[in-house]
Design brief:
It is a single chain. This protein is an alpha/beta fold. It has a single domain, classed as 3-Layer(aba) Sandwich (Rossmann fold), CATH 3.40.50. Helices cover 31% and strands 26% of the residues. A seven-stranded mixed beta sheet has the order 3-2-1-4-5-9-8, sandwiched between helices.
């Protein structure tokens, strides 16, 4: 990913963490989606909060007794997440090339808004990398803003940035997931919460699995306390 994307999120990390660290408290539907992800993953292995920001998704899953870790493109976001959640391991990494993560490493991935800064031609590339690090039968939960446009920001949370936010149609992302080799399970949409809670866009949540390659194949287990490396979550 671009250096400007990383440095933009580095600059807003502290303010972003302050604003969004407890956002799950105000989003019951998102909590239900994460509960469902936990049920689907079960004992398959670690769930990675991909594009973790300050780690609010990982914290919620950890509170439900799941083994979790987090990855973000921004080192400053990782620092915020680790400070707020010392019991969880977070690491810097690029969703296009998760070089420090083995094949079949995770039982599940929660990628909430991790694709929102990705131009359309690059989405499948990122999804293929997520598929690589998921174990056979592992589950991806992908959340994103519904739409067709691009919103550019030069300022965010009082800091100078250069960020493009991409909106996607649900059918479009389903096609990207199929192309990347996933099997689709469920796709759910919702209206936005109030303006005080989040940006006023419709949201989509897609559950998809990495299919088995061979009968009896299982996850490469990784303890969440070990170092691992991925993108950036934006509400």
């Amino acid at each position: 990913m671009s250096e400007e994307l990383q440095s933009s999120y580095d600059r807003v990390a502290e303010n972003y963490a302050e604003q969004f660290r407890d956002e799950m408290d105000q989003k019951p539907f998102d909590r239900k989606m994460l509960d469902w992800l936990s049920e689907k993953v079960g004992a398959l292995g670690v769930i990675c909060d991909m594009g973790c920001g300050p780690g609010q998704i990982a914290r919620y899953l950890h509170g439900r007794g799941m083994k979790v870790c987090g990855v973000d493109l921004s080192p400053e976001m990782v620092r915020q997440a680790q400070s707020l959640n010392p019991e969880i391991t977070f690491q810097q990494g690029d969703m296009f090339a998760l070089a420090d993560i083995a094949d079949d490493a995770y039982g599940g991935i929660a990628a909430f808004y991790a694709i929102v800064n990705l131009p359309r031609p690059s989405v499948v590339l990122a999804l293929r990398e997520l598929r690589r690090v998921l174990c056979p039968n592992g589950v991806l939960l992908l959340a994103f803003h519904i739409g067709q446009g691009i919103k550019h920001l030069d300022e965010m949370l009082g800091q100078e940035v250069s960020l493009d936010f991409f909106f996607f149609e649900t059918a479009e992302v389903k096609d990207y997931l199929r192309t990347a080799g996933f099997e689709l399970e469920e796709a759910i949409e919702r209206d936005p919460y109030s303006e005080a809670v989040e940006y006023q866009s419709r949201r989509a949540y897609i559950f998809a699995r990495k299919p088995y390659r061979q009968q009896g194949e299982s996850c490469r287990w990784i303890d969440a306390g070990h170092k691992m490396s991925g993108g950036s979550q934006r509400s």
